[in-house]
Design a protein that fits this description.
Largest sheet: 8 strands, mixed
Structural class: alpha+beta
Order of helices and strands: HHEEEEEEEEHEEEHEHHEHEHEHEEH
Strand order of the largest sheet: 1-2-12-3-13-16-14-15
CATH architecture of the largest domain: 3-Layer(aba) Sandwich
CATH superfamily of the largest domain: Zn peptidases
Distance between the termini: 44 Å
Shape: globular
Helix content: 25-40%
Number of strands: 17
Radius of gyration: 22 Å
CATH topology of the largest domain: Aminopeptidase
Mean pLDDT: 95
Strand content: 15-25%
Length: 362
């Protein structure tokens, strides 16, 4: 991976953006894509997009979501402890004993999620996981007045986490879901832009390619619902993480066999159009890009579920990047899967010539 691209990826992963609080990471994303896009913009809710070859055809949308799970300050007690509520699919078993950042208007406030010492716990309570509203964050305040000088109800909260390299290729970080997705669509757009510039003497216009970074996927695919309508794509490929099942913690009979380092994952069923998948699979085979298959017979659980419903039905597919330990502070991904996803997206944009390729023949 080139140095500038890796710096961009690390910056995305180390910038907090829980659902509803995505502005900081969206600014980083927009600044990066503006280096090579013909147009960049954002909407009233903070969805961001960048366009290469805006007058081309067909209109190809490459999308991912910028937000992550997190928490929000709900109440501050008289003795200065902070109570909170989850944003998105939070696993309560992970929360106690964590270091957290509370994001106020001026910056970061450090805190820890308190846990009663095991010596003081009653035996019948040791195995019970408390509800989030029964947990506390300690910011060292003596009382409510002191705490309210630093935090207030409505402030966002995230785990304290930085990128950890387990190997040269394998990294662990908070928010791989789905900062790696918006990284992939930005990088694919960069490759498409470079190819179009290199072929500027060619008479054909080529496609219009739009990279999209959405808000509030974890809350309910809200940003994708907005942008899928407003951007009017002819075809869309959505990049998100998917569950890597290659650890002893997984039951492959229930969850399939998806492995780190074995390539992006094509999703079959529900919002995944068979002909879009066919193009992706053909590109992967012809360009010798490794790929894997998973099934989603009812829904993909990604922004594809919102976008494919827009404007009478947009041909759509969901590409997954294998991710261990999703929705934890230590999500693990392989950079080779990310790079292969980028190549597959760029190859898809080069392969699509007409919207007629995706018409279902009866």
């Amino acid at each position: 991976m080139r140095t500038r691209s890796k710096e961009f990826l690390i910056s995305l992963l180390e910038t907090a953006s829980p659902s509803g609080f995505e502005s900081a990471v969206q600014r980083i994303w927009l600044d990066y894509v503006s280096e090579f896009a013909d147009e960049t913009n954002s909407d009233s809710w903070g969805n961001c997009f960048a366009v290469v070859n805006p007058h081309g055809s067909p209109r190809i949308l490459l999308g991912g979501h910028a937000d992550e799970i997190g928490f929000m300050v709900k109440y501050i007690s008289d003795d200065g402890f902070v109570y909170f509520q989850g944003i998105g699919g939070v696993d309560a078993t992970l929360v106690r004993g964590q270091r957290v950042w509370i994001h106020n208007r001026k910056g970061l406030v450090s805190g820890v999620v308190g846990q009663l010492a095991i010596h003081l716990q009653e035996n019948d309570h040791k195995k019970k996981v408390p509800e989030l509203h029964d947990m506390i964050i300690d910011i060292g305040a003596k009382n409510r007045r002191e705490a309210e000088k630093r935090v207030r109800v409505g402030d966002a909260i995230t785990y304290q986490s930085t990128v950890l390299h387990l190997t040269e290729s394998v990294i662990a970080a908070r928010g791989c879901d789905n900062r790696v997705g918006i990284f992939c669509v930005a990088e694919a757009l960069r490759l498409v832009s470079k190819k179009l510039r290199d072929q500027s003497n060619v008479t054909t216009k080529g496609p219009c390619v739009i990279a999209l970074s959405t808000i509030q996927e974890e809350n309910g695919l809200y940003g994708a619902t907005m942008a899928g309508y407003s951007l009017k794509p002819d075809v869309a490929v959505i990049v998100d993480v998917t569950h890597a099942t290659d650890t002893p913690l997984n039951d492959k009979k229930k969850h399939g066999d998806i492995r780190l380092g074995k390539g992006p994952v094509l999703s079959v069923g529900s919002s995944n159009h068979p002909k879009v998948n066919a193009v992706l699979e053909n590109v992967a085979r012809s360009d010798k890009i490794p790929y894997q298959i998973e099934i989603n017979p009812r829904f993909s659980g990604t922004d594809a579920d919102a976008i494919f419903l827009q404007r009478g039905g947009i041909p759509c597919a969901s590409l997954g990047i294998p991710n261990r330990y999703m929705h934890t502070p230590v999500e693990v991904v392989d950079l080779s899967d990310i790079e292969n996803t980028i190549q597959l997206l760029a190859g898809f944009c080069a392969a699509v010539k007409s919207t007629s390729e995706f018409h279902t023949k009866l």
